[in-house]
Amino acid sequence: MTASDPTRGRPAGPRITVEVPALRVGAGLADYEGLNRFVDSLRKPSGLHMTLLHVGVLDHLVADIEAWTRGLSTADKVLPEIVSWLTELPVLGGFLGKSGRLIPLGGGRLMGLEVDVPQEVHDYQALLVQGLHVLLDDLGLDNIDDFILSSPALGYRSPRWLPHIAVGKARSRHEEPIEIAPVAIEFGDSRIRNRQALPSAQ
């Protein structure tokens, strides 16, 4: 799934995602820094990651669910269920991917490495989406696909998940995909970004 900016027009808060950190791009730092020929403001290597599922700001997601169910699913029921689901997710072990192309992201504002990943990564990401469906069904939502694609908190614009790593700013909003020398990418175990912000972790 592809996510847009889920907090536009709402008070900011920590975004919750399920992601894998990119531990190494290419043979070393020089390979990664070589991408600055194609993008502006190259991101720090320590912050590189690939998002598997965007959950969004929890308060915003709870409000979207309450609105969708017309108040039948209330915050005191919804929030603990979401947190429990997140913290009980299985961990995807580290893996190797590869990339040979930079692509525009975020409506052309960013550039990212399009990543080829093993089938088990696609299977895990599909498991996350299926689990989200089950969770939302348990919370009393109907037309769940419509909710996922329309929820401002979730912020999805497309049901198709494109594995990628955002690496820097695009030099123009009309940037075309750029073919690069293929690089291997090492990923670590899956994790919940901003896990410390979950109520049960406080």
Description:
Helix content is 28%, strand content 30%. The chain is elongated. With 202 residues, it is α+β, with helices and mostly antiparallel strands. It has 5 helices and 9 strands; from the N terminus they run ββαβααββααββββ. Strand 4 and strand 5 form a beta hairpin. It has a domain at 14-32 and 44-96 and 119-165 and 188-201. The model has no long low-confidence stretch (mean pLDDT 91).
Instruction: State the total count of DSSP E strands.
Output: 9
**Spatial extent as radius of gyration:** 18 Å
Query: Averaged pLDDT, please?
Result: 91
The sequence of SSEs as H and E is EEHEHHEEHHEEEE
Q: Assembly state here?
A: single chain
Helix content: 25-40%
Number of helices in the DSSP assignment? 5
User: Could you say which structural class the secondary elements and strand pairing correspond to?
Assistant: alpha+beta
Could you describe the largest sheet, including whether it forms a barrel? 7 strands, antiparallel
- General form: elongated
- Stretches where pLDDT falls below 50 for ≥5 residues? none
Instruction: Name the beta content range.
Output: 25-35%
First and last CA, distance? 29 Å
